[in-house]
Amino acid sequence: IQKSYAMELDEIKTIWTQHEKILVENTALNKQLLKKLLTVNTGRRIDWLRIRTLAAVILPLPLYIFIVIPRIRFTFEFDVVFGLILFASISVVTYIWAIKLYVMIEKLNPDGPITAVSKQLRRAERYKKKITRNCFILAPFMIIGIFLSAGIPFFSSAMIPFYALVVVVFLISLYVRSKHGLAAQIRKIDREIEEIAKLETDPDIAA
After folding, report:
1. How confident is the model at residue 153 (pLDDT cuts 50, 70, 90)?
2. Distances in Å between the alpha carbon of 122 and those of 126, 163, 183, 194?
3. Helices marked H in the chain — which ranges?
C-alpha cells in the first residue's frame, strides 16, 4: 500500500511539473504576443503622427494662397502694411515650427533602441506643447493682422458675434487638443514603449 501510495504521489508530482511547465510556456508566449502587438500598434501610431504633422506642413499653403492672400488689400496704408507684416511674420514663424515638429516625428524609428525612441518622443512632446502654447498666444495677433490687411473693421460692434465665436472655438480646440491632440497621442506611444521595454527585460521572454 505504501509503495502504491508513493507511486501515485510521484505521478501527481510529474503531472504537476508538466502543468507548471505548460503554464510557464503559455505565459512566455502570451508576453511575446503582447510585445509584438504593442510594437505593431506603436509603429502604426508613429505613422499616423507622421501623416498629421505632414498635413500641418502642407495644408496651410493652399489655405494662404487661395483664401487668405486674395483677400489682402495690397496698399501702402499704415493699417494694411502693419497688418500684413503682423500676419506674415506670425505665419512664417508658426510654419517653421510645424516643419521642425515634422522633422522630429519623421526621425522616430519604432524598431530602434527603446531608450532612444522614448527620449525622442518626450522631446517631441515637449516641443509640441511649447508650440501649441505659443500658437494660442499668437492667434489673436494673427487674426488682427488678417483683419487689418484685409480692411475688415476690427473694432466694429458688428464683429462682436464673430469674436464670441472665436472664443468658443478656442475653448473647444483647447479641450480637444488636451484629450486627442498630437501631444496626447505622443504620450500614448511613450506609455506603449515603456510597456515594450518592461517586456524586453522580462526573463520569460527570449531576447
Report:
1. confident
2. 6, 35, 9, 12
3. 2-58, 60-63, 78-106, 114-150, 160-180, 182-200
pLDDT, one tens digit per residue, over 90-130 is 999 999 999 999 999 888 877 777 777 778 888 888 898 89
The torsion angles phi and psi of 84, rounded to 5 degrees, stand at -65, -45
Cα separation, 78 vs 151, in Å, equals 11
- Rounded to the nearest 10 degrees, the angle between the axes of helix 182-200 and helix 2-58 is 150
What residues contact residue 152 under an 8 Å CB cut-off, 6+ apart? 146, 159
Q: What residue has cell string 476690427? A: 154
pLDDT tens column, 9-47? 666 667 667 666 666 555 555 556 556 666 667 778 888
Residue 82 and residue 141: Cα distance in Å, rounded?
11
In sequence order, the 6+-apart residues with CB closer than 8 A to the CB of 121 are: 108, 186, 189, 190, 193
pTM over 0.70: no
- What does the block give as the cell for 82? 502693419
Per the CB < 8 A criterion, the answer to whether 56 and 101 are in contact is yes
CB 94 within 8 A of CB 138: yes
